[in-house]
Amino acid sequence: xxxxxxxxxxxxxxxxxxxxxxxxxxxxxxxxxxxxxxxxxxxxxxxxxxxxxxxxxxxxxxxxxxxxxxxxxxxxxxxxxxxxxxxxxxxxxxxxxxxxxxxxxxxxxxxxxxxxxxxxxxxxxxxxxxxxxxxxxxxxxxxxxxxxxxxxxxxxxxxxxxxxxxxxxxxxxxxxxxxxxxxxxxxxxxxxxxxxxxxxxxxxxxxxxxxxxxxxxxxxxxxxxxxxxxxxxxxxxxxxxxxxxxxxxxxxxxxxxxxxxxxxxxxxxxxxxxxxxxxxxxxxxxxxxxxxxxxxxxxxxxxxxxxxxxxxxxxxxxxxxxxxxxxxxxxxxxxxxxxxxxxxxxxxxxxxxxxxxxxxxxxxxxxxxxxxxxxxxxxxxxxxxxxxxxxxxxxxxxxxxxxxxxxxxxxxxxxxxxxxxxxxxxxxxxxxxxxxxxxxxxxxxxxxxxxxxxxxxxxxxxxxx
Length: 465
Ligand code: HEM
Known about the structure:
465 residues, alpha+beta, CATH 1.10.630.10, five-stranded mixed beta sheet, three-stranded antiparallel beta sheet, 49% helix, globular, binds protoporphyrin IX containing FE, heme binding, heme
């Protein structure tokens, strides 16, 4: 039942020669990671003589992300890929400039504040549910973009007080167009090529970037002109002061952070959900148990915020989907000084990769690594595992600030949708995994959606099949 037929990357058995490696990095970097990344603790990669280090061993991952976090900064590859759009905001900044931005927004992610946002999450999901039901059973929808729409509505509603006038479809297309070109920035950074070198799709990516940056700047200015009041993310950013200089953020800084939160905060969760529905559509036994849990906890009533605390299996399903398909499948750093990492010496400036996708399927860390089994996240099984064998949200001081928000949101969306409708990804369709900063199903995720029938024999009202 818990077979291993789900879509996955087929790694090359041996490191690719430089030219092929470069081509693969541009097309789909995750396909360039060779088998040793999934089987060995460390792997050194060479591209035209330039070295990078892949760290798959959990103890060494802890060294990079936690114990020696100060000896690393965000990698040049990611900076070159993301800074043109996101500026020097919380995701892309380092050192003191990062720290004060993180402190400025931390309050909004306190558990009690996040809990207060759940009704908005449920309401947005109910709109999606109704939209999907209205599409009818014969329609093929793109589940990935439906999830993106839902999480976009939620991020705008909860972080920007539902700011009107943001064109969701254009922003979504803008983010996709921009990310599409990032693998060129990554490849050029690996080669230490100059930033002005042109690349295919550049005009489109720049148009997308300019649109996104102008929209968010407009929004930041409007909010400041209106007095910057309220309790949302925009208000926190406008009110923040650098503890060292006492300076407020400029409109540009506020806009860069808003764009960072919008992009980091909706696409990732949407992907987690799209992959979850894909895995469920191949594992009806898991889906059935999930629906049973929801019906038992709610007693058949509409899902309310307090129910979310009592859906441990739903949480496990999302966790397992993010093991197989981590929305952020690689975390990259650059060494600031020369240091030892296990048996290796890492010289200053070396890019160090934590290949989360490969760690989550590593032969030494997981039994039947490609099989979908939410039981791995039952409390005892999870406790028995190395903390750094599973890190969809990263780790250490740069751990995802939205982790609590994302988990509540994902469980809420999954629970509302899965009890109301059955999502079927056509049997012959095996999505190709594509790395563009995030892990996307290439070309989206086609699916058919049917209302879930109720079994009158079952007290829990569980779906009949
Ligand atoms: C399933 C959903 C999500 C996943 C898998 C995810 C994953 C990650 C990862 C791996 C990092 C660390 C990157 C690194 O160390 O280089 C990160 C950072 C970040 N995430 Fe998330 N994220 C998710 C949802 C969210 C949400 C909902 C928000 C905001 C509402 C958010 C905002 C951020 C921000 C601002 C950072 C940068 C934090 C810093 O550098 O201090 N993320 N995320």
